Amino acid sequence: MTSFEEEATEETATCLHMTFYHPCQADKMMFRCLNFCKREQVRADETAKFGRDSSVCHYNIVDARVSRIQFSLQFYRKLNSSEFCFEIKNMSKRTKLTVDHTELGYLNKIDLPWKCIICFGDYQILAEIEEGEAMDYFETQLHLAKVPILQERHLPSLRPIPEKDIFPSLSPSQGKSPIEIDENE
């Protein structure tokens, strides 16, 4: 056998892609300590922490309005499954963290969806999980957005806007198929 045949099979790592945006980035450079466009390995037993305290957080955001530890991400495997996931926990006592439409208070945590937008203050982070099979580590790859992520993704507003004088809870045709009605009826 050749040395190529004897090498261990290369496994792919789960990669968390995170695209960061803040309206004042050009002036204040709050993401200057983040390592963009280069994949970084993180051991599976470590918690990835994001915040302003560089002695505790590997992902450092240079902004006095950001908490010492803003949020953390824990890599794990679902019970009785080969699927790997991330759990996001709000570590800020002052600032709520929003993951898509779910608001997290201090120490609240949820599973990170495969693609979602994380918001706190004026910060917007698009998180996308790329599946892999490595169990001992995961990777992160950070990107910088030049335009607001919410604007770029053309996401609908958080609240549905009802038509004039029609409220879904009061609609008599709830659960029925739509019926065409003459305006004069």
Automatic annotation (TrEMBL):
For this UniProt record, the keywords arranged alphabetically read as follows: Cytoplasm, Immunity, Innate immunity
The segment annotated Disordered runs over 161-185
Report any one BP term from Gene Ontology. Answer: innate immune response
The cellular location(s) given in this protein's UniProt record come to: Cytoplasm
InterPro entries in the record? FHA_dom, SMAD_FHA_dom_sf, TIFA
FHA domain location is 49-121
Q: Which family does it belong to?
A: Belongs to the TIFA family.
Protein name from the UniProt record = TRAF-interacting protein with FHA domain-containing protein A
Q: What's the source species' lineage? A: Eukaryota, Metazoa, Chordata, Craniata, Vertebrata
